[in-house]
Amino acid sequence: MGKTSKSDLMTATETCRFLQITPPTLYRCLRGRQIPAFKLGNEWRFVRADLEQWIQDGGIRPSVSSQSKG
């Protein structure tokens, strides 16, 4: 696993500001597993570089079932 500095990790509030979306929109994306994130305890965390890549990819993450196998 690569190193991620604390400044690269963002809270939900910081992510909403970064993406210019509301908290309900962010949590809807999380429920649909559409945005790269992970839980740290009970709180969601977001890696800025992952979000930037996600934006470059059009903001769409393929579901696990749609990825080719082999």
Give the helix/strand class: alpha+beta
Strand content: 5-15%
Counted up, domains total 1
Which fold does the CATH topology refer to?
A: Multidrug-efflux Transporter Regulator, Chain: A, Domain 2
Q: Supply the CATH architecture.
A: Orthogonal Bundle
What series of H and E elements makes up the topology?
EHHEEH
Radius of gyration: 13 Å
Strand segment count: 3
Approximate shape: globular
Query: Major β-sheet, in short?
Result: 3 strands, antiparallel
Record the strand order, biggest sheet: 1-3-2
Give the helix proportion (percent range): 25-40%
For the record, the CATH class is Mainly Alpha
- The multimeric state of the shown protein is single chain
Low-confidence stretches: 63-70
Structure description:
The structure is a single chain. The chain is α+β, with helices and mostly antiparallel strands and 70 residues long. It has helices spanning 12-19, 23-31, 48-56; strands at 9-10, 38-40, 43-47. A 3-stranded antiparallel beta sheet has the order 1-3-2. The two termini are 23 Å apart.
What's the structural blueprint in terms of helices and strands?
Blueprint: E1 9-10, H1 12-19, H2 23-31, E2 38-40, E3 43-47, H3 48-56
Antiparallel strand pairs: 1-3, 2-3
How would you briefly describe this protein structure?
The protein is an alpha+beta fold and 70 residues long.
